[in-house]
Write a structure and sequence with these properties.
The protein has 176 residues and is an all-alpha fold. It has seven helices and no strands. Helix 3 crosses helix 6 and helix 4 runs antiparallel to helix 6.
Length: 176
């Protein structure tokens, strides 16, 4: 009787694993976790650097990412799921070998990054070249305003005593 229960429990467990949606999600990868890995808000298990440290991706980060490595916006379109998985598994690029030689990505991290890159390729976002320029202009304007306000206060502090000294000299008849 105990053997029948174990067999029944095993069959039910196997059926649930085959039918349940979370089994499909874990096999396909979690794109939200992939985003966290890409930008570095979640660390890689083996301690590798986040992708955004070297690569850019359209619409990610203030300046759309770093520019040491290539832009990965079209990586999924060019290589497909199998190609991206192969790239993430081997990381055979000279600049990446030194970083990830002793820190390979886990299978889950590879699946999550692949899902994220697939999701971003479907967004078809256009690069926002003006975003960084706008931020720079705003920063410069703020710095100029601060400089002006500090300079105005200093000008009053320095100029006022000079004006008072000249007035005193005029009253005493020192200047004609």
């Amino acid at each position: 009787m105990s053997g029948n229960r174990f067999f029944s429990l095993s069959v039910v467990t196997l059926a649930l694993l085959l039918i349940c949606p979370w089994a499909e999600v874990s096999a396909a990868g979690d794109s939200s976790r992939g985003e966290a890995l890409f930008v570095g808000s979640t660390a890689f298990e083996n301690g590798g650097a986040p992708c955004l440290a070297c690569h850019s991706l359209t619409g990610v980060g203030i300046s759309d990412g770093a520019n040491y490595g290539p832009d990965l916006s079209s990586l999924f379109e060019e290589y497909g799921a199998d190609g991206v998985a192969g790239v993430l598994e081997s990381l055979e690029f000279p600049s990446m070998e030194a970083i990830y030689a002793g820190r390979p990505l886990t299978e889950t991290e590879q699946a999550d990054l692949t899902a994220y890159l697939e999701q971003t390729s479907q967004l078809s976002a256009t690069p926002d070249n003006g975003k960084l320029a706008l931020l720079v202009i705003i920063g410069v304007a703020i710095m100029l305003a601060i400089t002006f306000l500090v300079g105005l206060r200093r000008m009053r502090a320095v100029r006022q005593p000079l004006v008072e000294r000249q007035r005193n000299l005029l009253r005493k008849g020192g200047l004609s």
